[in-house]
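Researcher: Structure prediction, please.
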Amino acid sequence: MSYIQKDLLPGERIVYTGKLHWFLFAPGLSFLILSGLLFFFSEDQPLLRPVSSIIVLWALYLLIKAFIIKISTELAVTNKRIIFKRGLISRDTMELNHAKIESIREEQGVLDRMFDCGTLVIEGTGGGQEVLRNIDAPLTFKKQAQAAADPAAANAKP
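Model: Predicted structure follows.
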């Protein structure tokens, strides 16, 4: 059972589940490709093989780290709040009631727009903000959070 399912309040249900984008693996894959190219062209340059081996180790580290981040991160919009959890051994959570959200902003560069990933910045009414990076389909997550907040805003007491 996931952290979010265990943390649901009475009467609370998950409306949308977000995920991290595969682009999280891009740095490790890039180093892996670079090491393969160095190894391929190392016949004439004997120094390139040990360099290639070091780069392979670095690439494996980055890929394992990205995999752990991917499997240990949970994102959800419920009918009452937004819940975000990251961490495998240590845990970092953010839970923000819809009524306490001041704004949700998405940030996308050119590559992010091409691959439909990006960063969400959620700002609470108390001035705090939470930055969620490498979100898959951030605009969809934002729309789902805003749609779920409408009934919450209608039920809020003035």
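Model: Helices lie at 3-7, 26-40, 48-71, 110-115, 138-155.
Researcher: Thanks, that helps.
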